[in-house]
Specification:
six-stranded mixed β-sheet, alpha/beta, eight-stranded mixed β-sheet, about 600 residues
Length: about 600
């Protein structure tokens, strides 16, 4: 089957529905989106809302067990869903390209970069000759601001940073001048400086070459900075869409208002506000508006049928029978960031240096964390943040200097420390999916620290129920397995496991980086409550600078293994003194700055 490329059209998705093949339950339904060439449409919503399912459908691909029930997708003038398997292979990379969230997954670790770029061009017979392809590769590398010399092209993916890997992935995606590109959270794992480079590259390539870009993310600040238009998904449906300025300045759907309220902003002093509950999964969605169970404006008519799209003005539309009344409704009262309470020092680092195999990466770090206080440790990837936090937790063996807990000097490794000291410092890891044993129930995972401490079964059972209540989960969750939980629920379980031993110090290592904004707001709210109730000292390691104002009393900024600035959060974020801190803040996307 021949493939026809149009230079006039971008991407059109018409009445798309995808089902669970075994049951016929809809995963996404009624999706209608249009992206003109040279424009970026941001697709946002909670995890599980169907964003990636729509993005993969643009490549005429569906995950195993998913089928296209009906609808059409046009990339240019090519209707991709009706193509046979051979024609689909031709359009992928030629007409429509895909950039995944994990840069490493788009590159073959066994092949050199130059060879992988060459293979993309050869697969689509782009360039026509070896010399033309070599010239195109140099042009591609220049477009993504990477060296195009032979030495660099001879490197393997593991010899590049995450940002360099992502830019090579972008070069591969744009190699054959596609008319449509799907970007699935391509900057989620990147620090703000690297993210800024990648976003500039996406913006330039999209506009220079007239590409229609679908950008999938849960980072609203990135959308405000990058996209021309935005579509908001909830529970498999598009509930609002329009130009970026229209949506962020005047959200017309209650769910969109909650998303905006939950998004932290580097240029704003607002407190972020979460939202109780979760979206229904396929097969459990109610008749009518799926958001009705969480909506302040719900009435009986909302539960009868899914609301039709209502024109708000300009290009903005919203699927809500009260769309014109939403602007006057508050999304709830924000809890103010707690005032700084100076307690006694709990953890003290004195001239700590650390490294790997004799190579020092952390130099002479001194920090103090007090009772009831949150210290945020921020900086770019590779700055040494996690190495410092792991040394505090006794998970890193190669460090020198002093780390004290309540004035007592701690041994280097956790296994050398007294049981009481191990239980007093608890670590919450970045990945909620990898931090729990899939073969253990939630209750079994939470109870492990108590088993080490020698608690009786009855005491342990009561402690598990108590700590689940503290993280706002019902006691019945003790019998569930990790695969039955959402990402946000898993992270709450990881926090519960850390809290069950009644620690004095909580080390949170990028605990919200994999979560969407509403779940992130709920976790931040939870951590704030726990600090106030339990007087926890907290180290919050992150590269998400907008979160710092919402959670931390103090912030320490790391660069190349050294602390370059430390002080009260409001002072450091609002009036940074060091050039490095200033560059980090200026590189951070901001809804408020973009709207100005």
């Amino acid at each position: 089957m021949g493939v026809k490329v149009s230079s006039a059209s971008g991407l059109r998705i018409i009445d798309l529905r995808l089902n669970v093949a075994a049951t016929g339950n809809d995963i996404v339904d009624g999706i209608n989106l249009t992206i003109e060439k040279g424009r970026v449409l941001g697709l946002v919503g909670e995890s599980g809302s169907g964003k990636t399912t729509v993005g993969l459908a643009v490549l005429s691909h569906a995950r195993r067990g998913v089928e296209v029930a009906h609808g059409q997708i046009f990339c240019g003038d090519t209707e991709v869903l009706c193509l046979d398997s051979e024609a689909r292979r031709k359009i992928r990379g030629g007409i429509v390209s895909y950039v995944p969230q994990d840069p490493a997954s788009s590159l073959n670790p066994a092949l050199r970069i130059g060879l992988q770029l060459t293979e993309v061009l050869e697969a689509h017979d782009f360039g026509g000759s070896t010399e033309a392809r070599k010239a195109r590769i140099k042009e591609m590398m220049a477009e993504v601001l990477l060296p195009g010399d032979d030495e660099y092209l001879e490197r393997y993916p593991h010899q590049l940073s995450g940002g360099q890997q992502q830019r090579v992935g972008l070069a591969m995606a744009f190699a054959c001048r596609p008319s449509v590109i799907v970007l699935d959270e391509p900057t989620t794992g990147l620090d703000v400086s690297t993210q800024e480079h990648v976003l500039k590259t996406i913006r330039k390539l999209t506009r220079d070459h007239g590409v229609a870009a679908l950008y999938i993310t849960h980072d609203l600040a990135v959308i405000a900075d990058l996209a021309d238009d935005v579509a908001v998904m909830y529970s498999g449906r598009v509930v609002e869409q329009g130009e970026v300025a229209e949506i962020f300045k005047n959200p017309a759907h209650p769910y969109t208002r909650h998303l905006v309220a939950a998004a932290p902003d580097i240029a704003s002093k607002k407190s972020i506000i979460g939202l109780a509950g979760r979206a229904q999964s396929p097969g459990k969605r109610p008749v009518g508006c799926a958001f009705a169970a969480r909506c302040e404006l719900v009435e009986d008519a909302c539960r009868v049928e899914f609301p039709k799209m209502v024109a708000i003005g300009g290009r903005q539309t919203a699927a809500c029978i009260k769309a014109t009344q939403v602007a006057s409704v508050s999304v709830g009262s924000a809890k103010p960031v707690s005032a700084r309470k100076v307690g006694e020092p709990v953890v003290e680092l004195v001239s700590v240096s650390a490294g790997y195999s004799g190579n020092t990466v952390v130099h002479d770090v001194s920090l103090t964390i007090r009772k009831g206080e949150c210290l945020a440790l921020v900086g770019e990837s590779g700055s040494g943040k996690t190495t410092v936090s792991r040394a505090i937790g006794g998970l890193h063996r190669e460090w020198t200097g002093l780390i004290r807990l309540n004035g007592r000097e701690l041994k280097t490794m956790a296994r050398q420390r007294a049981v009481a000291d191990r239980l007093a410092i608890q670590y919450v890891f970045q990945n909620p999916y990898g931090s729990l044993n899939p073969r253990r129930t939630v209750g079994d995972s939470i109870v492990r620290p108590l088993v080490i401490d020698g608690k009786s079964k009855d005491d342990a059972r009561r402690a598990v129920l108590d700590v689940l209540d503290k993280v706002s989960l019902p006691g019945s969750y003790a019998n569930k397995y990790p695969d039955q939980l959402s990402g946000g629920e898993r992270q709450r379980i990881a926090i519960a496991r850390a809290l069950v031993s009644e620690p004095e110090v909580l080390v949170c290592d990028e605990v919200t980086s994999a979560l969407d904004v509403l779940v992130q707001a709920a976790i931040v709210d939870l951590l704030g409550d726990l600090r106030r109730q339990l007087g926890l000292a907290m180290l919050f390691v992150t590269h998400n600078l907008p979160l710092v104002r919402s959670i931390a009393d103090e912030v320490a900024v790391m660069s190349e293994g050294r602390i370059v600035e430390v002080g009260l959060s409001e002072s450091v974020i609002g009036n940074p003194q060091q050039q490095y801190t200033q560059s980090l803040i200026s590189a951070t996307p901001s809804i408020e700055r973009s709207m100005r």
